[in-house]
Amino acid sequence: MLKVRLKASQFLATMYSTSLQFNFRTNPFLIPQRRCLHPSIGFFCSAKASSSTSVVLKRKRRGLSSSSSSSSYPSPYFYQQNLGYGRFAYDECESASESDRDTESSKQLGESTLHNIEEWRWKLSMLMRKKDDQEVVSREKKDRRDFEHISAVATRMGLHCRQYEKAVVCSKVPLPNYRPDLDVKRPQREVVLPYGLQSRVGDLLEAHLSKKSTNKENLAHNASLRGSNGNNSPNDKELYENEKPFARSVVAERILKRRSLEMRNKQEDWEGSPEGQKMRELRRNLPAYKEREALLRAISENQVVVVSGETGCGKTTQLPQYILEAEIEAAHGATCNIICTQPRRISAMAVAERVAAERGENLGESVGYKVRLEGMRGRDTRLLFCTTGILLRRLLVDRKLEGVTHVIVDEIHERGMNEDFLLIVLKDLLPRRPELRLILMSATLNAELFSSYFGGAPMIHIPGFTYPVRSHFLENILEMTRYRLTPYNQIDNYGQDKMWKMQKQTIRKRKTQIASDVEEALEAADFGQYNPLTRDSLSCWNPDSIGFNLIERVLCHICRNERPGAVLVFMTGWDDINSVKDQLQAHPLLGDPSRVLLLSCHGSMASAEQKLIFDKPEDGIRKIVLATNMAETSITINDVVFVVDCGKAKETSYDAINNTPCLLPSWISKASARQRKGRAGRVQPGECYHLYPRCVYEAFADYQLPELLRTPLQSLCLQIKSLQLGSISDFLSKAMQSPEPLSVQNAIDYLKTIGALDENENLTVLGKSILNYMNLHFLLRLLHCYFGKR
Ligand SMILES: Nc1ncnc2c1ncn2[C@@H]1O[C@H](COP(=O)(O)OP(=O)(O)OP(=O)(O)O)[C@@H](O)[C@H]1O
Fold first, then answer.
1. Ligand 1 atom closest to Cα of 462?
2. Of 42, 84, 677, 790, which cross-links 47 as Cys (Cβ 3.0–4.6 Å)?
3. Best mutation site among 467, 674, 683 for ligand 1, i.e. most ligand atoms within 8 A of its Cβ?
């Protein structure tokens, strides 16, 4: 017994170190739908208004008339609508790679913490400029002096500013004494209804209302008949009961037909308008357009189609739109229901926004999105962009995806855990839903693998299109910048956390296969054609460091010598981003807010903050975005001309020495490097600076190993049981690339030995506690992120 307990506690410790990974990435189902964790954690209590730092409410875009609010405070209805309460049923967990958030630097006693007043000025001037936006909400910790500072800036700009407990609001309209949406003591909570129930209630209500009016007409008609024919006609009850099934289906049909025709008229109006024609012209220039008919034909003739499209070809923004347009043209707009999954929140939101704009609509009309804690979807939304986790969560309560006509899974080449899980579940579903269409989209050319998994599904390839993007590898960068690498200028400075991070840098040195390949490639490389300084530098290049100083030098080079345009820097995680940002802020050029706007983009940031990366800075200011691999796929930042790629991303792997799983930076794949490069050149020519030599790039794997194969199996098995996906080995054997059966069996045996699974492979109380413990750790981590405490 003692032995078992000991093992269980060891296991818990192991889980503790990895729980974030599994809660976020692998198990979107585990997060309770009730999201209010603690009254003081505003961002968990509601949707939009709950972002941790700033939120911009868009009034007009959500269909509120501007007249109702030009001078007065918005009604509670406004907040109800704008905050998205009760509108969406599904929630999603955050991916681990996006969630490793570090603490904010601690405050100095008695000193104002408002180190980012320039950022505030910029945010407020953006607010002034955007006529659709009404206010900025910040939940960062502030004291009275900070508030006064912000309030003074806002007042000078003619804005209204108020503090509601921990939140500060700057608004174009006068603010009330009390804001229910910012009340952390009595937070408004989202009422979560399962999707199926929501739509059933909607349909029943609609049918009921239409039937009521039909019945009224019939009753009037019968009354007149009775008046003339005496008592020979059927009584009212009989009439009502006989009519019921007939009326319901006919009424529903009529409503759907009417809506479909309305959608078609609206689409035709837009296509005929000058703006619509201009947009059409732009869209026609994308390579996907040439394949439009072939794609639509393949989709109508086959249940599964695999589309491989290189970066910039238009697969993400165009293909879902082609299906929607075709359905609307065929007057089936109101009956189609297309779901397109994206691996990340930011891409789901940004793509939905772009597609809505291409259709001349506001978000929430025919195109919407749903991501963790927020979304925008209306009655007529027929094309919904959501994260993979959201769809998985829906599948848990709506196993047949009732009403859904098309599922599009984008960026499947990334082979994240959620995507692989989703494919197993969808493959199971297809025979039970023969009319459902599944379209798999991959950015790169590994379509055969997916096609054979789905029984030889047809493949369509779309060539990519980007404006020319020049690649510069480390050797060229060193020549260009004349920067000299020494053993001493490659130690990344993580500020306060230096000791801890230094240990982490040592851990990085433990060799993985790819690290050995990189070393071999470096040994075999011949840099003979480069000048001696460059050769010296290359000989002491440290592949284990991210290279903060080199990044600084490259950014300086771009700012001083290159044409205007934003820079997107790919880092590995929140800790790197923060440390580099601190370093850059201390630099005379890069830290000068009148010349450089420094922004970060990371998975644990609020969506409103993430979206700032799409805004254009003022003329003469260069935008530099420090992002994780979350900005790698599907998004287009219009003004990005330069990409800086550190060549690494965080991924789960085993620390073989401690025998614990961990999330550590490792080399990316060639596919990822191409995707990173592809973020430049989407609307104009660009440059990509890879901070590693070309020979290292050649040593990269073509694709990253699927997360399913990198993830520790014990926790994976527990996840499968908690999701009620049947026998663990049966489920895993259905994966596109399943783990070794022996390893699966060992993991199951281990879980049985410690008592997490019983003899029949059911979760025991201990197993459930482990999962809850993992959730608890997840919550602690969130609290830690929110309050900035270690
Ligand atoms: N927000 C935007 N603003 C301007 N142009 C855009 C925007 N979004 C997309 N585009 C244009 O549409 C093209 C296709 O974008 P899309 O996201 O569909 O590409 P993709 O084929 O999915 O590539 P990737 O997988 O690399 O994201 C872009 O290269 C760009 O020219």
1. 21
2. 84
3. 683
Ligand 1, atom 16: nearest CA belongs to which residue?
314
- Are 170 and 161 within 8 A, CB to CB? yes
Ligand 1 lined by 636 (C-beta under 6 Å): yes
* Whether residue 371 sits in one domain with residue 443: yes
Say if ligand 1 is within 6 A of residue 317 CB.
Answer: yes
Owning domain of residue 476: 470-499+511-707
The minimum-distance atom of ligand 1 relative to the CA of 633 is: 27
Q: Which atom of ligand 1 is closest in space to residue 681's alpha carbon?
A: 29
| 629 within 8 A of 608, measured Cβ to Cβ | no
State whether 319 and 352 are in the same domain: yes
Q: What is the DSSP string of 400-451?
A: T-TT--EEEE--GGG--HHHHHHHHHHHHHGGG-TT-EEEEEESSS-HHHHH
Please state the φ and ψ torsions of residue 580, each to the nearest 5 degrees: -65, -40
Distance CA 366, CA 383 (A): 6
Q: Are residues 408 and 332 in the same domain?
A: yes
Which of these three, 138, 171, 204, is where a domain ends?
171
Distance in Å, CA 636 to ligand 1 centroid: 6
Number of domains in the chain: 4
Quote the CA–CA distance of 27 and 720 in Å, as a whole number: 9
Q: And the tokens for 27?
A: 């198990």
> Which residue in this structure is represented by tokens 């954690």?
41
**DSSP string covering 664-697:** EEEE--HHHHHHHHTTSSSSS-EEEEESS-HHHH
* Distance separating alpha carbons of residues 502 and 496, to the nearest angstrom: 11
Length of the chain: 790
Ligand 1 lined by 751 (C-beta under 6 Å): no
Token pair belonging to 307: 């589309």
Identify the helix (H) or strand (E) that includes residue 622: strand 622-627
318 Cβ closer than 6 Å to some ligand 1 atom:
yes
Three-state SS string over 37-106 comes to CCCCCHHHHCCHHHCCCCEEEECHHHCCCHHHCCCCCCCHHHHHHHCCCCCCCCCCCCCHHHCCCCCCCC
- Report the chain (790 residues): mean pLDDT per 10 consecutive residues: 43 40 35 32 32 37 34 35 31 34 32 67 87 84 80 88 86 81 62 64 70 54 41 35 47 86 94 94 92 95 93 91 96 94 91 95 94 86 94 85 94 85 91 95 80 93 88 95 88 61 49 68 82 91 89 96 96 90 94 95 82 90 94 87 94 57 80 91 92 93 83 80 86 88 86 90 86 58 44
Closest alpha carbon to 545 in 483, 489, 611: 489
Q: Is residue 43 in some structural domain?
A: no
Out of 280, 317, 676, give the residue to mutate to test ligand 1, the one with the largest number of ligand atoms within 8 Å of its CB.
317
Atom 27 of ligand 1, nearest CA residue: 634
3-class secondary-structure state, position 397:
helix
Contact residues for 526 (Cβ-Cβ < 8 A; gap 6+) = none
Q: Is the pTM of this model over 0.80?
A: no
Residue 268 sits in the same domain as residue 154: no
Q: What is the CATH number of the domain that holds 620?
A: 3.40.50.300
Q: How far apart are CA 601 and CA 570, in angstroms?
A: 10
Ligand 1 atom closest to the Cα of residue 317 is: 18
